[in-house]
Design brief:
With 357 residues, this protein is of the alpha+beta class. The chain has two domains: 5-172, no CATH class; 176-350, Histidine kinase-like ATPase, C-terminal domain (Heat Shock Protein 90). It is built from eight helices and nine strands. The longest helix is centred in the middle third of the chain and has 70 residues, at 124-193. It is rod-shaped. The two termini are 31 Å apart. The chain crosses the membrane at residues 9-28, 48-68, 80-102, 122-144. Residues 168-242 form the Signal transduction histidine kinase internal region domain. Pfam families: His_kinase (PF06580).
Length: 357
């Protein structure tokens, strides 16, 4: 059975059970005034039977109207025109059951108005009562079904949104790996031209970082200690090339196994090298401070840069990471300070808040 049809069956079955219980209770309560001489057990038994009989009228009416309502391609006015004979037939069936079966055969009495005036099969007041009883029931059924459809649509839209975000994140991560690899291979190429002794070591470190990017980054989350380890490996690669680089790395983590989205932090470090250290002529430095306390993550990275950096830098990494943060951690706080000769990045994330996951 399809999920939508299965959901409809369960919801409507529950509705009819609750509706039947409600109607039995109301009619049982009313019967003690209409038939005060009957024993309560007999009245309850009669009420259970007569409400089952009413369902034989109400259920076909409800689903006939619901079928027309959901019928695609039918003109609205044609639907309204078809509603009329269906409702009229239902009212007649309701009256027939009430007048000729319930009163003479279940209660053993003649149907009356207010317990005094005899009522015929067709009477304006009793026909109106039947009509209101049926319309009230139809309104409940329509309300239940429309609410169910809206909730189902909301779930489907939420699922589509989640799938779309997952696809977008996958695309963003796919952009990260080639970007990082391109930069590092350029570094290795330059070292190879100079026949630098550190070239094999850089290649080994690169393989470790790429292994992390390929296998670990494919996961939705990773422990923060592994993410930090990946940053340290990346810095070691860059330090071999930038031998005059000053690096300070401080971390204060109270929960090393706290999970974060992979490759979130490394992009700021990559940008610090590509658009800062690599373009600096004077003193080169990168200062990194990472803190995690009670689920509040704070990340600060400061790096040197030229006073007038090249204007053709695309800064793909920073644009990429901004979008990832918007998707994964909507309530994050990210500030980038562009000073005269250095950049400062501040990032704060409440990892206790899972609204973006």
């Amino acid at each position: 059975m399809e999920p939508d049809r299965k959901s409809k069956v369960y919801v409507h079955l529950l509705f009819w059970i609750l509706y039947y219980i409600l109607e039995v209770y109301l009619d049982f309560y009313w019967s003690r005034y209409q038939f005060p001489g009957l024993d309560w057990q007999i009245r309850l038994q009669n009420t259970v039977v007569l409400e089952l009989g009413y369902l034989l009228v109400k259920v076909p009416l409800a689903y006939s109207l619901l079928y027309l309502y959901e019928k695609i391609g039918l003109n609205r006015f044609l639907k309204l025109f078809l509603y009329i004979p269906i409702i009229v037939l239902a009212v007649l069936a309701h009256r027939l059951f009430t007048h000729y079966i319930i009163y003479p055969h279940i209660y053993g009495a003649v149907e009356t108005l207010d317990g005094k005036i005899p009522s015929g099969f067709i009477n304006g007041l009793v026909a109106f009562n039947s009509f209101m009883d049926l319309i009230f029931m139809v309104g409940l059924v329509f309300g239940v079904e429309i609410t169910r459809q809206k909730n189902l649509l909301k779930e489907q839209l939420s699922q589509l949104k989640t799938e779309k975000l997952d696809q977008e994140l996958s695309m963003l991560k796919a952009q990260i790996n080639p970007h990082f690899l391109f930069n590092t291979l350029n570094n290795i190429y330059g070292m190879a031209l100079k026949k630098a002794d550190g070239t094999p070591e850089v290649i080994l470190q690169l393989s470790k970082v790429m292994r992390y990017n390929i296998y670990e980054a494919a996961k939705k989350s990773i422990s923060i200690e592994k993410e930090i380890e990946n940053i340290r490996d990346f810095i070691q690669i860059q330090q071999i090339r930038h031998y005059d680089l000053e690096v300070s790395f401080h971390e204060n983590i109270d929960r090393p196994l706290q999970e974060v989205s992979p490759l979130i932090l490394i992009q700021f470090v990559e940008n610090a090298f590509k658009h800062g250290v690599s373009e600096s002529i004077g003193q080169k430095f990168i200062h990194i401070d990472i803190q995690l306390k009670d689920g509040i993550f704070r990340y600060r990275i400061e790096n040197s840069k030229e006073e007038k950096p090249h204007g053709n830098s695309t800064k793909i990494g920073l644009k990429n990471i901004r979008r990832q943060l918007e998707l994964l951690y909507p309530k994050h706080i990210l500030t980038v300070e562009d000073k005269k000769n250095h950049y400062i990045v501040h990032l704060t994330i409440d990892l206790n808040d899972t609204s973006g996951h």
